[in-house]
C-alpha cells in the first residue's frame, strides 16, 4: 500500500540507462537484490496498480517530454510546420515519404549541404 501511495503522489518516474558492471553502487545493489529475489519461494510484495495504468502514465509522460523537445528544437522546422503535434499514430514507414518530409534524400539541396557541390 505504501508503494502505491508513493507512485500516486510522485508521478516523476525517470528511466535512465546505466552501463552495467562498472561499479555504480545503486546498480550493483539492484543487481544483487534482483538476483536474490529469484531465489525466493513466494512473492512478498504485491503491487495493486494495474500495469495498464503504469504503462499509460509512462506513455503520457514520454509524449509530453517529446512534444516539449519538438517545440523547442531549432531543427526540422519545415517538418514542424506540417506536424506541430507529436503523435505516435502518425509514424510513416515509407522510405521515400520520410526522405521528402525530412528533406534528407537524393535532393540537390541536400547533396549540396553534404558534398559542397552546387545544385544544377
TrEMBL record:
Domain (RNase H type-1) ranges: 1-39
PROSITE patterns: RNASE_H_1
Gene Ontology molecular-function annotations: nucleic acid binding; RNA-DNA hybrid ribonuclease activity
Domain of life, source organism: Eukaryota
Protein name: RNase H type-1 domain-containing protein
Organism expressing this protein natively: Araneus ventricosus
Lineage summary: Eukaryota, Metazoa, Ecdysozoa, Arthropoda, Chelicerata
Amino acid at each position: 500500500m505504501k508503494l502505491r501511495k508513493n507512485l500516486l503522489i510522485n508521478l516523476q518516474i525517470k528511466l535512465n540507462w546505466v552501463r552495467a558492471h562498472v561499479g555504480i553502487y545503486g546498480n550493483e545493489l539492484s543487481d544483487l537484490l534482483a538476483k536474490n529475489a529469484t531465489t525466493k519461494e513466494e512473492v512478498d510484495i504485491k503491487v495493486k496498480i494495474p500495469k495498464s495504468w503504469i504503462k499509460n502514465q509512462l506513455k503520457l509522460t514520454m509524449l509530453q517530454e517529446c512534444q516539449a523537445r519538438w517545440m523547442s528544437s531549432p531543427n526540422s522546422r519545415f517538418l514542424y510546420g506540417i506536424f506541430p503535434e507529436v503523435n505516435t499514430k502518425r509514424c510513416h514507414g515509407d522510405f521515400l515519404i520520410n526522405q521528402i518530409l525530412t528533406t534528407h534524400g537524393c535532393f540537390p539541396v541536400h547533396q549540396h549541404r553534404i558534398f559542397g557541390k552546387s545544385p544544377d
